[in-house]
Amino acid sequence: MMENCYIVESSAIPVTSTESHALTCAIFDATPVPFAINDQYGRIVMLNRAFVETIGYTLEDIPTLSDWWPLAYPDAGYRQWVTDNWQKNFAASARSQCPFVPLEINIHCKGGRIRRFMASASPMGEGLDGNHLVILYDITERHRAEEAVKAMESAALFEATFNQAAVGLAHLSLDGKWLRVNEKICHILGYSREELLEMTFQDITYADDLEMTLACVEQMLSGEIGTFVKDIRYLHKRGTIAWMRLTVSLTKKGDGAPDYFISVIEDITEQKQAAAELIRLRAQADIFLEQQILAQTIMALAHELNQPLNAAGSYNEAALRLIKMEQINTAKLTEVIKCAVAEIQRTGNVMRNLMKNIHQNIQDSEVFELNGSLHEAVKAFNAAMYENSALVVLENSGGEVQVSVKRLCLEKVLMNLLWNAQQAIAVKADMSVDPVITIRVAYQQDCVVVSVIDNGPPISQPVADKLFNPFFTTKLNGVGMGLPISRALIESCGGKPEIVNLVVA
What we know:
By secondary structure, the chain is of the alpha+beta class.
């Protein structure tokens, strides 16, 4: 038995415009991607369910784009960036008839959450000229995952760089606690990482340097300075002193509040030791040079004085023999005495010519500005000592003061006194004494008093009374001519050297 077969031809099922609109709205509303429709007048015509659920705003909240922009982008700068790029991409799409280039943006949702979207726009087509569909693909989770991967890669790179740095690197809390240290710091100070993280920088800072370091920290926290660089001393775990060049900067939070310190620490102990050794060697070289100059001067002086003194001695011996004769030849005795006097006068001329030669390069007095010369003398002293000189401090040297004196003479005396002060300062083997020389200027009615003061050991009164005596010295290998020469130069300029409060002035 054959079964009956029915073939039904299908055809399009007509729907009314009302049904079409309802279908379109249903599809629009059911789409899981946030949609919005804007018209040519800047009004927001429709929002789908996904838009309201994801972003939170309804048409009552944002009836127009003017309402939308400040809510979605409260930061004015970022809002301007979004609007500029949105309009640029929209105009480019209209000109080229190509799809809108998507824009990655952060949107502030209702309630304060911030989500990341890939935003795109498309014209609605015929019959809806001026209207366009805005599509917002939520890529928040993807963006977070990408940022997390970048953060992990960045953290790994930072950790490798931090730990392998050739200098000490550390993060410290605002109260000085070590938060993070690299291997170099542990090697420099002798402590393990675990030991340092239980300490503060105050625990290992040499007592004499702590107050200065804390003052710099306070200046950074108050905003007076942004960073500081200082040479300070740390205490090694063994108890020895290690010199460090410390560079510190302050990291701030997003709101500008201080967060933590970043410290770069360089071990300069060997440099300091080399500097101290260089000072010692230079002092020895200068003493040797002084001795050689003195020896040459004595030899020259002996050579020049020997002949007239021998001649004078011979004439005096002849005079004595004439006096002892029974009949004194007065004329001959007078002639012999005159010759002896002439030789003695020649001896005096030799001494005067010698002093003249010593001072032949010193010009006559001139009027010049004192403070400028003081600064130049300090600069020359520091240059001669390289970086190993004492800290030279000028007190009361502000303002212009005109003096009338031999400039070269003044410069020679200042350099001599500065070098003398440098040698007088006791530098211990562990370099625990920072050498400081103070040049103090005091203005009086008709003169200026310039004092050179060092922080070396005190000078006893008996020693102070002899300091300007030729060949007197407190140094093991000193010659004892530096201060006497300075005294002669000062007096040649009409000045007066003094010992005040047991320091050289």
